[in-house]
Prior knowledge:
- This protein has about 325 residues and is of the alpha/beta class.
- It has one domain (about 1-150, about 225-320): SGNH hydrolase (Rossmann fold, 3-Layer(aba) Sandwich), CATH 3.40.50.
- The protein has helices at about 1-15, 35-40, 60, 70-80, 100-115, 155-160, 170-180, 180-195, 205-215, 220-240, 260-275, 305-320, and strands at about 50-55, 90-95, 120-125, 240-245, 275-280, 295, 300.
- The strands form 2 sheets. It has a 5-stranded parallel beta sheet, sandwiched between helices.
- Strand 6 and strand 7 form a beta hairpin.
- The longest helix is centred in the last third of the chain and has 20 residues, at about 220-240.
- The chain starts with a helix and ends with a helix.
Amino acid sequence: MAIGEIIIRLDAAFMFFQSSRIVRFENGIRNSAELTLIENGVFTVLEKDLRVMVLGDSMIQGLGIESEKIFSQQLKLMLSSGMANRYSNVYVLDVSCGGNNTLRNKLTYFAYVDQFKPHIVILCYNYDDIYGDQNVRQNNEKTVSEKFETPGTGKRQSLMQTVSGKKNLIINRVLTLLYNSQIIEFILRNVNMELKIRGIILPGSEFYHEVYIAYSPEFYGWEKSKNNLKVIIQNCKKRGIELIVYTMPELNMLSNYQVFNKIEKEVSSFFQSSAVIYVNGVTPFIGFNSEDYAISRYDAHPNYKAHNIMAKHLYEIISTYP
């Protein structure tokens, strides 16, 4: 066990074995021609141009994928080719950012909407967008330290406090060792992921919280998230912007996607009642194998083939735009 602990700690420090398992991302908007023009203050809004803004997190940003193969660039090419007779130029401003939750997407929208003046906004919604800080503060740079807050923060500490006193000293030390063991954490994390992929929801896990608690009235995150979403929706309507909400597919779960039915019912009901175009992004992937479209077995990020399918899916919708 000691050898295993050393290996896990070294892997965590130097990432020897993680390159093919997960996508690591930095919080930052990916550079593009549109973004450069806007940041330099030289973007020109013309009546005969089509302007599309893309909001979302790392699932749509395409980190680890070549720039020309990511969703926004493939969509831009499709729109430029398929709608050339209707528009002089097509601009797709991709301001998706790794770690964005609902609040961050709202702040990003307002940071660029005045300069870019989009005709269409594609909000790529992730089921975990309700996590993290959803409150607007005066200093926006401190609104969200990280997207994913582990449900039940402080649980370890409260459990440890119940085992105190001299009589329980040995138990206390054993629990401390177990909680601090990275090899045990590594094993449990991968076991939980394997169960998740098989459609088995382990009580007490983060996935259990997402499926059964996060979208229920008892969790404040969904209510606050809806308030942030309503601001985007209302502002788009006020400006005459067509808002398309595109739910990102969790592509390593294709064989057991029914576990998301409860969440999907709640999310789709909210957006459809808000009179926006709502699209469940998993639709074109149903019946296919996860390994063909997810980055890896344990990573739901879409690969370049999935980005192409998602772009085609949205192109079919946008091509009907007046």
